[in-house]
Amino acid sequence: MASLHSRKNGGSNLRDSMSKKQNNGVEETLDRLSQLPDALLVQILSLLPTKDAVASCVLSNRWRFLWYSIYNFHFINSNYKTENFIYFVDHVLTHCTSSKIKKFKLDFDYMSRWNFELETSRWINFAVERKVEDIILCSDDEELTYKLPLSIGNCSSLITLNLSHWVFDKGLAIVWNSLKSLNLYLISLDDDDIVNLLSGCPALETLELSFFRGFSRLEIKSSNLKRLTLASHWRPDAENDGSLEIIAPYLQHLEISGNLYNLMCRLVDVSSLVNAKLTFNNKCIKGIGALGTGGFDDEEENCDYSHQVLRTLVQDYLHKLSYATELSIGNCFREVLCALKFEGVPWVLIPDLKCKYLTLELYIGKFNLHGVAGLLRASPHADTLNIDIAIMPYDSSCRCFESKYSAKGDNNDMESWISSYQFPNLKNVRIGISVGECLKYSFQWQLRKLFKLSEFLLKSSTILEKFTITSEKRKCKRCSMNCESRLLSQLAEKLLGCARSYANPVIIFQE
Amino acid sequence: MASSTTGEKKILTLKGGDNEEFILEESLVLQSELLKNMVKEERVSSIPLPSIKSKTLVKIIEYLKKHAELTPSNKEEFKNFEKEFVNVVLEELLDITVAVNYLKINGLLEFCCQAVADRIKDKSVEAVRKIFRIESDFTPEEESEFRKETPEAFEGDLDDTTN
């Protein structure tokens, strides 16, 4: 922000106020802020919601016109009547003297029931003309989807674009040559849209789709695009048969999380992956049926079927992820590895993962120990293990899996199978609770499960150096006590008293 | 004057406002556009910064060191450090901001400006005046006239406290 616009009062006023103070014999005026150079004050005002920046005009003469030069705009319509909001945005933009806009952000965070299309087009065009770099458009209004003006397609100055509940026209000519980061929330795109979009953003590095639907193929040809996040499927739709193929040979970071319903993501080519996070949940078909998107005559059979599909898929993931050095994996891996073992699938069919840094997101469930053991067995190179426990209310959508294996899980064979394990490279283990439900009624049960798991890790890791239990201080809303912290501190105490392995790790309890 | 060296690392001396000297690796100050130019073009080994208080300089050097150690694995730790870095009394925050602006450490400048902005955000005009000790030179009539230009800017839930 070098260029400053000459105004009636701006500069001279600063000298006035300073000399006034000097005349009074005070060396330094108390109002340090107003003494800062214009460019700095404009930078500060540009980092405020635009409403606050404009309000600065009544602070004093010094501030009267400073906001005219701001180069970031952030309008939030929560407090306004719609026509007042429109007036305000128009007023601000008409007075804007910046020839270059860096960031333009619109937040519609309530049910406006007003179709802003004409106005939003005008505002976005304004930003596009001034070579805007970052556009962020958010709407929480479930009833209305806002449409981007055609002009945005040619906005080659764009570097980041975040849209939530905004759409662009099908077949929009996209020339986003500088776009590095694209983030779309609540978005329906078909396969052609995806191709059109990706071919229009040759410089794209990061793509994030949340609550997405409509496409079954995601092929990323550009070697610039290194980071892909898919978070939650946006309710299953009739047209999609529930499969998605990802072909991204240059991708280095992949995250698939949230609820995918029946969507099965297949990784066709992800051969450059370094870092992967696969912590999504699939509802088995039985669970989907209950959502009302179609019933099944033989629920149990379909449930079996979807678990079977998931099993094949996870086995394939393990092959595809075997070269990644950092992995975060969720519950379905645990389930599948456990099931494979129960069914006597030989270990040679499960590849060794090269992963060094392993994070497990787990529910405490029946086969915790077996699943974790299996996953660690599959990752012999891991030196750091993070376990994030999610304490969830019991998920009733599918009990078939657990009931099917419960008899097998309790037998002695399993215990001895596990106790023969050793993890030769594991140095650091950290356990924490990431999502917490009230523990009031399941305290002892959870403690027993956690203790068993921790004890197993301590016993089996021959060179373990540090075993950390981290607890966030937060008060439980249900029992108004710090039940989570109590659980973890009891766990730490119990562990200190239990037999150690060959190594003598430090056990740390962090709050 | 040639820069003094120990091993491969070039050493630089910064002199604060009260003549206190700070000796540090030259590579650290390259984050500052101003010092980078001085070091690269004029090949100096001692730079006087009379307008910057030593206390402020200590803070800034601490930041430069932390920033130089930043890796993908300690990002969280760095964020916490940044948070604490600007969690100081207003006077000190403004000292740092002015100094960082002068030294042209761009990333840190944006961060400092955000910290100043956060102390204005959602506050009423009266509270902002109190916090920053800004004296209004408008008559009440003028002020109410300006407020009428954009009444929306003064609506809503505004915080009157100076915390």
From TrEMBL, chain A:
UniProt cross-references to InterPro entries, sorted A to Z: F-box-like_dom_sf, F-box_AtFBL13-like, F-box_dom, FBL13/AtMIF1-like, LRR_dom_sf, LRR_FXL15/At3g58940/PEG3-like
Biased composition (Polar residues): 9-21
Region (Disordered): 1-21
Domain annotation F-box: ranges: 30-83
Top-level division of the source organism's lineage: Eukaryota
CDD domains in alphabetical order: F-box_AtFBL13-like
PANTHER family the record matches: F-BOX/RNI SUPERFAMILY PROTEIN-RELATED, F-BOX_RNI_FBD-LIKE DOMAIN PROTEIN
Listed name of the protein: F-boxlrr-repeat protein
TrEMBL record, chain B:
Region called Disordered, residue ranges: 139-163
A GO BP entry: jasmonic acid mediated signaling pathway
Keywords: Ubl conjugation pathway
Quaternary data: Part of a SCF (SKP1-cullin-F-box) protein ligase complex.
Protein name (record): SKP1-like protein
Keyword Heme: no
Lineage, opening ranks: Eukaryota, Viridiplantae, Streptophyta, Embryophyta, Tracheophyta
Function: Involved in ubiquitination and subsequent proteasomal degradation of target proteins. Together with CUL1, RBX1 and a F-box protein, it forms a SCF E3 ubiquitin ligase complex. The functional specificity of this complex depends on the type of F-box protein. In the SCF complex, it serves as an adapter that links the F-box protein to CUL1.
Family according to the record: Belongs to the SKP1 family.
Pathway connected to this protein: Protein modification; protein ubiquitination
Ranges for domain SKP1 component dimerisation: 107-152
Entries under SMART domains matching the protein: Skp1 (SM00512)
Biased composition (Acidic residues): 152-163
